[in-house]
Amino acid sequence: MSLIDPGEVVPAGELGRVHFIAIGGAGMSGIARIMLRRGIAVSGSDARDSELLGQLGDLGAKVFVGHDAAHVGDADTVVVSTAIREANPELVAARERGLRVLHRSAALASLMAGRRAVAVAGTHGKTTTTSMLTVALQHAGADPSYCIGGQLVTTGLGADEGTGDVFVAEADESDGSFLMYTPHIAVVTNVEADHLDNYGGFEMVKENFARFVDRIEPGGTLVAGADDPVALELADRARARGLTVRTYGEAEGADLRVTGFTPRGLGSRFAIEGAGEVALGVPGRHNALNAAAVVAVAQALGVDGAAVREGLAAFGGAMRRLERKGEAGGVEVFDSYAHHPTELTADLEATRDYLGEKAASGGAAGRIVAVFQPHLYSRTRFFAAEFGAALGMADVAVVLDVYGAREDPEPGVTGALVADAVPAGTETVYAPVRDEVPGLAASLARPGDVVITLGAGDVTALGPLVLERLAAR
Prior knowledge:
Blueprint: E1 18-21, H1 26-37, E2 42-46, H2 51-58, E3 62-65, E4 77-80, H3 89-96, E5 100-103, H4 104-112, E6 116-121, H5 126-139, E7 145-147, E8 159-160, E9 166-170, E10 185-188, H6 196-199, H7 202-214, E11 221-225, H8 229-240, E12 244-249, E13 256-264, E14 267-272, E15 276-280, H9 285-301, H10 305-314, E16 323-328, E17 331-336, H11 341-360, E18 368-372, H12 377-391, E19 396-399, H13 415-421, E20 427-430, H14 437-444, E21 450-454, H15 462-472
Parallel strand pairs: 1-2, 1-4, 2-3, 4-5, 6-9, 6-10, 7-9, 10-11, 11-12, 12-13, 17-21, 18-19, 18-21, 19-20
Antiparallel strand pairs: 7-8, 13-14, 14-15, 16-17
Helix pairs in contact: 1-4, 5-9, 5-10, 7-8, 9-10, 11-12, 12-13, 14-15
């Protein structure tokens, strides 16, 4: 079973006036931005003011801070996310008036209709892959419309309307909403157990990815990670449907095989068999794999390969994806959205490569100071041991308490579960008082070290504060 009923897609031109509840979120604001660029009347509310609300207002949206039934106004369609509760006064008013209520993914599907849709899915890497693909296609002159679950470092945007016929979208599996899309090309980077608070078990996760692959339109293409066993199973499923399949990765037999990965500062160089040499300005072996997925999609779209490789070289990263925040006192500070053990491992490996290369070039033998905030009580309960093992790759681990987000606290589930699971070789501090963490991290760091804040919650705000403490010491 799925969590969201795909239902029928309503063409964007039939939505009328559209009101967004919680319009300030990354995904919701992006959809609203594209609608405004298409001339659709948009309004929306959010619990707090933000720069994104201001940007939407400048584009012509009517925005409100706070939630009130009156804000729905004369809307014909109301857009919500999974996080919106039925008791929200604007949603209550919409239901009482019989207005069309769409999930965020259904609104995005409306915008994708009629375009060559590329939907990028997977447990890890989908935001960066979608971002890379967008930049590469822009560089090649394809000018796609796009909607990403993050923001591009170079532009600060996570969504926009393009002039081309391609629509690139990050397809979120967390609540089953990726089953709203009928892509021409689908990417599945990998499939692991996550979002078990919604799915209950890994078998249901896999079942929903299979249903996602089944939604690829006839004659379409699946791009699948060859290093992931579940993605390979999905590739077999797609072939059985008569779809074109392109695999990528380091595994023998991959259609686009990555070889010769070599770190180069905050980037890397490698080859993709059959596609040539690639240079990236973002670190990590995992990003080399993401780039290979981009090349596979570009080939399926018939886009010039040389221009795509130039676009990959120019890619500046996505915000919160191992994003460099600055340097003070000889210590560099990075920020990462990593909130699953596999993601922590990938980012810490990339950071270790970076420090190793600096040391080989005559720099200080720096250490990793990882500042990790677990996200969701359920995820912490499921993966505490795995989080601890991943943090063992750091020299120093500072573990905050759990960022609950949409969940209520669970007895006995705290950041201490993770801290207690970190191997003995890593200096570990459990820091449940968030306000004390910037000073603590700064005191633990030495010149040449890297401090990296990790997590999907408000840990992202601590990086600039760590830099302030480093500069002042």
